[in-house]
Amino acid sequence: MKKAILRFFLLISFSFFTLYMKAQNLVPNPSFEDTLNCPTDHSQINSTSNWFQPSNGTPDIYNSCSNDIDASAPLNFLGYQNARSGNAYSGIYVSSSNIGYGVNYREYIEVELLSALQLGETYYVSFFVSLADSMQTTSDQIGAFFSADSLISNSWFNFSVVPQVENMIGDYISDKQSWVLVSGSYVALGGERFITIGNFRDSSSTSLFYAGPGGTSFLHENGMVYFYIDDVCVSKSEEACINSLGLNSFGKAKRNIVCILDLMGRKVSYKPNTIQIYIFDDGTTEKVFKVE
Question: Per DSSP, what are the bridge partners of residue 259?
Fold first, then answer.
């Protein structure tokens, strides 16, 4: 009897662990809250834990702990934006003009995932962006690239790779007040350990759009596009990103539950702390475990 009870608890524990691993967000420090030190200037992405710049392009980090206008939040040298969650967010140039470093100048942020992606598994990817107030130009170009090794470069130009997840072409991100969701899914080749976010296209392939009045500085005109970034998620479970980011779904209509089954296939009522199968009105099913 004791052995049977022990096997039962081991089975339940394993099931809980499996569900947890599936629902886990693989991005450490997804909203840039954990810091090594409070940023005191722009171009200090390395002051936040886990994230780093993979090229000579210099991404920024903004945090309410900072008293410097170049790194503070919500007010900073490029505009005013509250963090989507917490007190911090990042920011990058995804397009540049013909001044400074040249038309193909790009900034990227990169992080090593908590575990490598598994061959053939589908991963759901999401992050939020907002156009900086001082920008007069915007673009539809920003995406995420997965790689087994870090994208390290001594250049400030774009990485010539094709992102597995990218904002929809023609969907120009011009919202300076709210955060805009960029999301998609990716079937892993296996072994990918890093995610890099930015614009991977050169200037000839980057579409630009007038976003309205912005800053008076010439630096922020003529093709300069700067996005704030917050709340990055990579998970096997779409629900994990949806729940952690406070979404209904990745651009889909909200599903309604039409039936709940137990593991024997019997129709039951909702019961917390129990593995149940939800059947939705769009025909999809999902195994759910909710702790209360």
Answer: 279
**pLDDT for 220:** 54
β partners of residue 126:
183, 233
Rounded CA separation 4/12 (Å): 12
User: Which tokens hold the place of 131?
Assistant: 């156009």
Has residue 81 got a pLDDT over 80?
A: yes
205 is written with which tokens? 């392939």
* Residues 17-54: b if buried by 16+ CB within 10 A, e if exposed: eeeeeebbbbbeebbbbebeebbeebbbbebbebbebb
Nearest to 60 by CA among 38, 85, 33, 41: 41
pLDDT, one tens digit per residue, over 82-110 is: 999 999 999 999 998 755 566 789 999 99
pTM (2 d.p.): 0.76
167 close to 140: Cβ distance less than 8 angstroms: yes
Other beta carbons within 10 angstroms of residue 267's beta carbon come to 9
CA of residue 16 relative to chain centroid, distance = 26
Residue ranges and CATH numbers for the domains of the chain are 26-243 (2.60.120.260), 255-292 (no CATH)
Distance (Å, whole) CA 147 – CA 149: 5
